[in-house]
DNA sequence: TATTCATATAATAATCCGTTCATATGAAAA
DNA sequence: TTTTCATATGAACGGATTATTATATGAATA
């Protein structure tokens, strides 16, 4: 990680500049202030990871397909594979990831395990995403 | 791609089964129906890719950090790097990805290029995600 | 209890993606 | 017009993630 304190030579809008330039010195200082403020209020690495987790899970087509399939009602693994056109093993893998992220849940029904969308928030987000993608 | 028609031997809840099992035959048929319906209403590969695009972009910590930094106000590349603790090149790469996804936008100001969050929807989603991550 | 069958897991191969280093670009200032 | 400096880009590396094949697990039924 090449971080830590840097030399001053690289800093834009440094005080030794006059008032020339498209932005004024005051703006420059404000930007420097904003940058420092942003750095200070930056959530922890762990929290950011947590924020990203759900997005990462939804950002994969194979998982999105599974979700879309489940939005029509709960399905067993075999039927999910049938609906999305994938093989059983991979669907099972992706279901695990979806379940770990609490995006889907499962229940046993006889010999099968039925998966369903975990809650309405998920459904809402997927529908929004779909609507957004359609008007392109 | 091991898809296309399969042999009948693999199909769960097939008609030759009696009414035994945890689920009834009627439920079995309904599941088969749902699976077929899901497959038919499955959006195109292209649309799904499009749905996933924004999620994929937001699913990466380095980009999420940049967004969080920009939520305090527009910043130039150098200040963004300072705020997130990364190097110029990588920040620039990630900014390009964010910009291609229309999640951030940019404008020139003198020598610098100032980046900012593209619209309130983005801000809203990030704030929600942050709130969600905090109550864990 | 033994068998069956849906689902899960392990291991591997293949691909994607973020990071970094080095360098190019091109607008602004001189 | 030349120089400077912020930003962008290209190439290469490495880590991470998905897809696949083969096999294990374990609940349900007989």
Mean pLDDT of chain A: 83
Radius of gyration of chain A: 24 Å
The unreliable regions of chain A are 1-23
Q: Per DSSP, what share of the residues of chain A sits in E-state strands of 2 or more residues?
A: 5-15%
Biggest interface pair, counts: A-B, 66 and 66 residues
Give the gist of this structure.
2 copies of one chain form a homodimer. With 136 residues, the first copy, chain A, is mostly helical.
Report on this model:
The structure is a homodimer of 136-residue chains. Chain A is mainly α. Chain A is built from 6 helices and 3 strands. Chain A has helices at residues 25-40, 45-58, 61-70, 77-84, 88-100, 120-134, and strands spanning 75-76, 104-109, 112-117. In chain A, β2 (104-109) and β3 form a beta hairpin. The longest helix of chain A has 16 residues, at 25-40. The two termini of chain A are 40 Å apart. Mean pLDDT of chain A is 83; it is low at 1-23. Chain A binds a DNA duplex (30 and 30 nucleotides) through α5.
List keywords for this structure.
homodimer; 136 residues; three-stranded antiparallel β-sheet; 3 strands; DNA-binding
Topology:
Two copies of one chain form a homodimer.
Chain A: H1 25-40, H2 45-58, H3 61-70, E1 75-76, H4 77-84, H5 88-100, E2 104-109, E3 112-117, H6 120-134
Antiparallel strand pairs in A: 1-3, 2-3
Chain A binds a DNA duplex (30 and 30 nucleotides) through helix 5.
């Amino acid at each position: 990680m090449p971080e830590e304190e840097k030399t001053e030579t690289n800093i834009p809008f440094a005080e030794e500049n006059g008032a020339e330039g498209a932005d004024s010195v005051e703006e420059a200082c404000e930007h420097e202030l904003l940058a420092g403020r942003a750095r200070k209020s930056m959530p922890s690495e762990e929290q950011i990871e947590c924020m990203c987790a759900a997005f990462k899970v939804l950002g994969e087509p194979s998982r999105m397909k599974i979700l879309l399939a489940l939005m029509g009602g709960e399905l067993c693994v075999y039927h999910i594979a049938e609906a999305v056109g994938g093989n059983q093993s991979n669907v099972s893998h992706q279901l695990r990831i979806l379940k770990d992220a609490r995006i889907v849940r499962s229940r046993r029904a006889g010999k099968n395990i039925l998966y369903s969308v975990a809650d309405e928030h998920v459904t809402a987000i997927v529908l929004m995403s779909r609507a957004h993608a359609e008007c392109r």
